[in-house]
Amino acid sequence: MAELKVLYEKAGFKNVTTYIQSGNVVFSADKKEINTLSEKIQQLIFKKYGFTVPVIIRTVDEIESVIKKNPLLKVEGINIEKLHVTFLSAY
Fold this sequence. Notes:
It is built from 3 helices and 2 strands, in the order H-E-E-H-H. The chain is α+β, with helices and mostly antiparallel strands. The chain has a two-stranded antiparallel sheet. The longest helix is centred in the middle third of the chain and has 13 residues, at about 35-50.
């Protein structure tokens, strides 16, 4: 993941952090770029590694909304340390 972090940093993204060995990357970018980020990152990954992967972008507001609306948080006895969210590129 260190190599992936460097790839994002060289592309101009700020505050880059990777999450475990999942391929998830948290970073800061200009809000004006939101509509082109997926394609830009897909191209960076393809150029560096030679394969295409779906790239899903979620904003801070979207992540906060997912957390807030999670119905399992209201269930007694739920261990929130074990909750996970998966985002799909298509449904």
